[in-house]
Amino acid sequence: MKYPPALQMAIDRLSRLPTVGPKTAERFAFYLLRRPANEIQDLATALLDLHQNLTHCQRCCAIAAANPCSLCTDATRNTALLCVVAETKDMIALENSGQYQGRYHILNGTISAIQADNLDHLTIKQLLQQLRRPEIKELILAFNPDVEGETTALYLAKLLSTSNISITRLARGLPAGASLDYADPMTLSHALHNRSRIK
Amino acid sequence: MKYPPALQMAIDRLSRLPTVGPKTAERFAFYLLRRPANEIQDLATALLDLHQNLTHCQRCCAIAAANPCSLCTDATRNTALLCVVAETKDMIALENSGQYQGRYHILNGTISAIQADNLDHLTIKQLLQQLRRPEIKELILAFNPDVEGETTALYLAKLLSTSNISITRLARGLPAGASLDYADPMTLSHALHNRSRIK
Fold this sequence. Notes:
Two copies of one chain form a homodimer.
Chain A: H1 5-14, H2 22-34, H3 37-52, E1 55-56, E2 63-64, E3 78-85, H4 88-97, E4 102-106, H5 124-131, E5 138-141, H6 147-159, E6 166-169, H7 185-193
Parallel strand pairs in A: 3-4, 3-5, 5-6
Antiparallel strand pairs in A: 1-2
Helix pairs in contact in A: 1-2
């Protein structure tokens, strides 16, 4: 015996979400059943609005409410800096640090070492388009410090080797609040090599 | 900086689901953004249908497509047996075992030892209503073997102490595939006390 069709359908649809299995989907469905109808209505509307009220900024390729997005049209940003990130959420993380005043480009992914041929999903063409603006002096590569991130950074550095733009990447070292005795050898190695003078 | 309003709203709504925090909700939202619009439409419709196409069976209090539900109106079931479970999903689990042919009553929860006064959410009145049917000979209490389940079973047993209906509960012992050396002392104690003769 299965659940009534409407309940089973909701469980099936919810279990397609990443990391959600049938048991978790069941839990979601029973939770929603206990909530007032207008709360489910609000959730459904919010999901539908995802496609209806969001677009991609043609310039920086971020997921945004408008095209071009508010960051690309913000005249107070430092147009000499362009920071390349893999995903829109990486841009939000950098913005929340409050330490960066330049503009962004969202690459829409990174290059996987095992599927290095397929770069169609990446917004490299739009990045080259952005780099045609003469005011850009520095390109900051801000990818995750993993194999894919490294591969992507190296690929872009090679691609732009003939340009006059300075290319940098985020510093490697100990994160805030780390314990030396729990840090992995790679992190310690970076922390040692990139040590900075304090006096 | 936060996400565009439509994205932030979807993340907020999704993070109300049980066990879902802001990071998981973000993951769900980005996953849905990458899916075709009709897939989100299907999910939204399935969620709305939860309230629109489901009801509670007035007799057994199960979440069902019709009232009375298909189980309560199924003439092939053994009407001498009534099995009380806490939730509709417990009924589905028992049904999937294929070993029970009687009817059910869903109590809509169990009695918590620390909130023993508040029994308003339980369908005890409807259970007493069901028990007025003279054909019922046995009431099977099928709650989880935990403190709440025990409390509820004892409460119902006391409430029905003057009735002529036989009251039973699910057997305690080793689950299928268990290892004796990993079983907890309580389970082993039940397994010993309720040992069965094989010869």
